[in-house]
Structure formats: structure tokens, C-alpha cells
Amino acid sequence: MVRGKIDRRLKRIISDLQSFQTILLNQVETSRLQEKIALEENQLLRKQIESMVGRGSSGPQVDPESSSSV
């Protein structure tokens, strides 16, 4: 009888731990995806800044040929 209670408690604990492990693994996966997105965004921003610095620009460039005020 005592052994049966212990077995049930152990099974419950194992089940709870497996659920917790699943939650943690999902959080790790989400964090990795967020990190990947942040790195890609940083790379894009870095390229945009380098492009602006390379042109000696302090803001967005306006193409003079596309300007409607002649």
C-alpha cells in the first residue's frame, strides 16, 4: 500500500518535470528565434548606417530626377 502511494507520487513528479522541461525547451526555442531576428535587424541597420555614412548623408536622400518641383 505504501509502495503504491510512493509509485503514484513518483509518476506524478516525473510527469510534472516532463511538463516543466517542455515549457523550458519552448522558451529556449523562442529566445533563439528572437535572437536571430534581432541579429538580422542589427545587420540591416548597420548596412543602412554604413550606406548613409558612405554617401556623407545625414538623412534620407532625395533623387533630384524624381523631384516634381522644377
Automatic annotation (TrEMBL):
Start and end residues of each stretch annotated as Disordered: 50-70
Protein name: BnaC06g41370D protein
Gene assigned in the entry: BnaC06g41370D
Biased composition (Polar residues): 58-70
